Amino acid sequence: MRGFLIGLQFLTQLPIRTKSSTPNHIADSYYFYPVIGFLIGAAGVLVRRILMIVFPLSFSIAIVLAFLVWISGGLHEDGLADVADAMGGGWTRDDRLRIMKDSRIGAFGASILILALLAKYAALTSMNAAHLDASIVTAQILGRWSFLPMGYFNRYAHEGLGSEFMKGLSAKAVVVATILSIAGVIVLCKIQGILALAMAAVIIALTSIYFRRRIGGVTGDCFGATFQFVEIATYAAFLA
Length: 240
Hints:
mainly alpha, 0% strand
C-alpha cells in the first residue's frame, strides 16, 4: 500500500502525504503506475458522464482535458513545452539541457502545447461515442506505463527528477507493469487496445532514439513529452 500511495503522490497533485520513504518503497510504486493511470482515466470518464447530463459533448470534453491536466499538476504538459523549446532553440547538447531547465516558456513550447490540446480535443470530439470512455482510460494507462520502459532502457542526460526515477527501476517492475498494461487495455478495448499499445511502443522507441542523439539520454521533461505523444497516439488509434 505504501508503494501505491507514493505513486499517487508522484503522479498526481492529490493531497497525499507519506512518511519517510525508503528506496525500496519508491521502487515498489512503479508496479502501480498502470493502476494509477487506470484510476485517473476512470475519474476522467466519471467527470465526462456527469457533465454530459447537462452539457454537450464538446464542452464536456474540454473540461475533461482540463481535469487531466489538473490531476497531474500539468507536469507532462510542462515537459512537452520544455522539450519543444529546447529542441527548437538549442544548437548544442548543453544549450538544449540549459533551455530545458529554464522555467519560462518560449514560442516553440507554447505552440506545441496548443497543438497538443487541439489534437486531443479534435480526436475525442470526432470519435465514435461508444469508444470515448475506453480511449480516455487506455490513454492514461499507456501514458504512465511508457515511463517504465523509457526509463529502464535509456540513460539519464543529467541529474534531476528523471534520473532519481530511473535509478530505482528494475526489469521486474517493467515486466509486471507491461503485463498489467497489456491485460488492461485488451480487456477494455481489444483490437484498439492492441493497436494503441503497439503505437505507444513505437513512440517510446523513436523518442528514445531522438533524445539520445540530441541530448545523450533522457530527462524528466522527456518523460512528460513522451506521455503526451502516447496519449495523442492512443486517441488516434481509436479513430482508425
